[in-house]
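Journal club side-thread
Mid-discussion, someone asked how the predicted structure for our own chain would compare to the paper's figures. Pasting it here so we can look after the session.
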Amino acid sequence: MTAPPEPPPPKKRDETFDVMKGFGISEVILHHALNPDALAKFTTEGSKTWWFFTGVNRMFHWGVPVFLMASVILLTMSAKGKQMDWGRFYKRRALRQIAPYAIWFLFYLGFRLTMLKSPYDLNPVASGWPFGPPTLPALAADPMNLAKLFLSGKMYFHLYFMILLLQVALLFPVFYAIIRRVSWPLWAVLLTSFALEYGVYLLQWQVKFPYPATTFLWYIPAISVGLWLGMRWDRWNDAWRGYWPLFVLLWAGCGAVYGWQAYLIAAKQPGVEAMVYAMSAHVYAVSTGLVLLRLAQWLQARLPSVHRLLGAVGDLSLPLFLLHPAVMFLLSGPRVTEVLRKLPLPLLWFYLAIYFFTWLVSYALVKARLGSLLFGRPYSTRGN
């Protein structure tokens, strides 16, 4: 009797996408650390230092599209070449995305009530719940308002990204069916998706949806490019070699246009065109994703230690993303501010402190084996 053949070894995970997420989470924390309140605490408005960090804050504003692109690439790769069981797919996504989101929604509900203590949130009003006390803090009193905050990702300013991931997961079978049938080159997907995004912006200007940036329609190019790359990863190197001048031109050209528009806004000068600002920002963000993807590959070949470090950071990107606003708030108090003001470039130290302590808490939670509960997956092995 012949022994059954040994199963093939599991494919080694391509850490390029973890490196992309490492870039992305570093940018997100930097962008949030250089918020207007922090700039006001540590710089004088109009000074050279204020302008420098304001410029960094504006130009490092591509994290969400890059995160979304990397996530869609990995999701598409995981489905490619398989006979998909969509029922199992949705069950897995519910466990990996909806359950952790619900936990962090409740966490930031409690955080707002116990730490932020906004008078608007705490104002006692008649409860709309069929049970419990007759009055509750306004933030928690109306079930319909909580449902709205849950569906829009507005319980705290960064949670909308979790809603975007849920929308992509919900619609992924449709996206996957389309990308399987599209044989266009990457440049054609880029141009078509930007044209569609322009149409979405025109619609928004007419209809005025309340939270457009919390819908997948606001990120069509990032999603489309992620689908193409996930489905045709073997063609990426050829696409880069053939069209890298176009990708770099989009990145540099639209970055310059977006930067000028952002400067006019910061300087409170006329000449800002809302459509030019929105489109240049989006093209700049998506082309930044392509440039960072190539940079990640270059690091793998030339600087493997830096590649591994960024990959490890990217592997923890979701915990870092979910936790860093709370850590940032805790480090924004007067005592920490007083210490940081005594250091050169206090905003830089503020950023590094947020990054370090968020990483420390994230690492501790993962080591405590809370990854599956809080973040949707165990961290003993790499996963998307």
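Post-session note: The beta strands are 124-126, 135-137.
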